[in-house]
């Protein structure tokens, strides 16, 4: 996964997987049925993934931020972001495994585990391949140039409070 394509695929995979974690955390993961006195029907209480594991939305947001950071960072810092993404994915896996200890519906947790594994894999790809990826172009940075003759005089006039364009 070298070059611009590797950066694009890894960033998109991280962003989509993190969005899946955020979405799945808001879905019902557990249903608790409470029997009531007759003739009242049983009452069902639903708990979402984020209620069962409050870390899920936060870790999903960290994954999304990491996807954006992949585009904005360079060299060693990008490698650090990759490590943080891998740790984020591992944290999501731990949070889901904790909820699986309860008797729950496994559909959303399994999808969340797949998304977390994708985030871990993306972090590993970043650590391994980020040195071959392009960086944000220099056009976004201020050029280091020496001022042309006359430019400094205009700036000096502005500093003194004079209008250099006014006729004297």
From TrEMBL:
- For bias type Basic and acidic residues, the affected ranges are 157-168
Q: Which Pfam families match?
A: Trp_oprn_chp
Q: Does the keyword Ligase apply?
A: no
Keyword annotations from UniProtKB, A to Z: Membrane, Transmembrane, Transmembrane helix
Q: Which domain of life is it from?
A: Bacteria
Region entry Disordered, spans: 137-168
Q: Indicate the transmembrane segments per the record.
A: 55-73, 80-100, 106-127
Q: Which InterPro entries match?
A: Trp_biosyn_TM_oprn/chp (IPR019051)
NCBIfam families, sorted: LPXTG_anchor
What is this protein called in UniProt?
Answer: Trp biosynthesis-associated membrane protein
